[in-house]
Design goal:
Blueprint (H helix, E strand, L loop, with lengths): L1 E6 L5 H14 L4 E6 L3 H6 L8 H7 L4 E4 L14 H8 L4 E7 L12 E7 L3 E9 L5 E6 L2 H17 L4 E6 L7 H13 L6 E6 H10 L7 E5 L1 H12 L9 E5 L4 E5 L16 H13 L3 H16 L13 H13 L7
Parallel strand pairs: 1-2, 1-3, 3-12, 5-10, 8-9, 8-10
Antiparallel strand pairs: 4-5, 4-11, 6-7, 11-12
Helix pairs in contact: 1-9, 1-11, 5-6, 7-8, 9-10, 10-11
Length: 343
């Protein structure tokens, strides 16, 4: 029996995560999901300097992987770093990965898309280095290292190879950020030499933002690679291509640990309304099972979800009429019925 830490989160997080846990349990997967607290709700009711309590760290550090529900990050000077950023940096989860894929019978405002966003997740603007130089001047430091850039580039090319795709798209602004993005781009070029059968496209970030609206299909069957903030923003834009951020599941990989999460936020205005799309949370859970080697149980969930969406059994954001709990029940019915055909 494998164990994973499961952070329930804030806002709609607990209801979505509990739905995911019910579905995972229905597969019969031999995994013990240990509920944990982290986020602004816990922070506001406890004294401390972090959004993550020590008890949660104890569970995270004793498991192979964790699942993080949506959490709220308080703003303003002196407030703690987000739960996701803190775990990524503490566990050195350098690769944030978000598949962008059109599902059957869902909105496709600009046509079908199928690509993967890969982002370096430990450096860049999210290194957390900000200083006030005067009463009028504030500076944020953008940390880029060649070693981290090579590491994420190798991950991106390896991901393309694993998927039998032939292109990595390096997204940068080296004409303006000559040293930081220059170092990133040079590292990507160096790693490309190790993958002779995979092409490298180099795009400025503003051009990619335009092409994703004008002609997103040019990136199909490609890995989109960039630094932390650029890809954080672009992957949110990409979510609109599949009709809803509620469809975007995400993983954060290090050498020996991984964290899985939906890409969307905690949406507190929808808390306890039983209306939020559970797809991203459910598929992040299925991806976690795959990472743990439970590929049959993972496929059961992926296939049940795809079939459920194709049948139009969806929430309001995709034009459906079902509640979160009703979609969950549909998925459990399919999983318990042995919905484990190969993908």
């Amino acid at each position: 029996m494998q164990e994973v830490a499961v952070i329930l989160g804030d806002g709609v997080g607990p209801e979505l995560v509990k739905a995911m846990m019910r579905i995972v349990t229905a597969t019969g997967a031999p995994v013990n999901m240990i509920p944990c607290h982290a986020g602004s709700d816990w922070y506001e009711s406890h004294a401390g300097t972090s959004l993550i309590p020590d008890e949660t760290w104890d569970v995270i550090n004793s498991t192979q992987a964790c699942f993080k529900g949506p959490t709220t990050t308080p703003g303003g000077p002196g407030s703690p770093r987000s739960v996701a950023v803190t775990i990524r940096q503490e566990k050195d989860l350098f690769a944030n990965v978000r598949p962008i894929r059109t599902f059957p019978n869902t909105p496709r405002p600009l046509g079908d898309v199928d690509f993967v966003c890969v982002r370096e997740a430990t450096e860049g603007m999210y290194a957390g280095s900000e200083v006030q130089l005067s009463g009028d001047m504030y500076v944020a430091l953008r940390k880029i290292t060649k070693s981290a850039s090579r590491r994420i580039a190798h991950f991106a090319f390896s991901e393309a190879y694993k998927r039998s795709w032939t292109t990595v798209v390096a997204i940068h602004k080296s004409n303006i950020l000559k040293q930081t993005d220059g170092a990133f781009l040079q590292a990507v070029r160096e790693i490309k030499s190790e993958f002779s059968n995979i092409g490298l496209w180099e795009y400025h970030v503003d051009n990619v933002a335009q092409q994703l609206v004008k002609n997103p299909q040019i990136f199909n069957k490609s890995i989109l690679l960039s630094t932390n903030l650029f890809m954080d923003i672009l992957s949110e834009e990409c979510a609109a291509l599949v009709g809803s951020i509620g469809m975007i599941y995400s993983a954060n990989f290090g050498d020996t640990y991984a964290m899985f999460e939906p890409a969307h936020g905690s949406a507190p205005k929808y808390q306890n309304l039983d209306k939020v799309n559970p797809t991203a949370t459910v598929l992040a859970g299925a991806w976690m099972l795959d990472y743990l080697g439970l590929k049959r149980e993972s496929a059961m969930i992926f296939n049940a979800l795809q079939e459920t969406v194709a049948e139009g059994k969806t929430t309001y954001d995709l034009g459906g009429a079902l509640k979160t709990s009703q979609v969950t029940d549909c998925l459990i019915e399919k999983v318990e019925g042995g919905f484990d055909r190969a993908p």
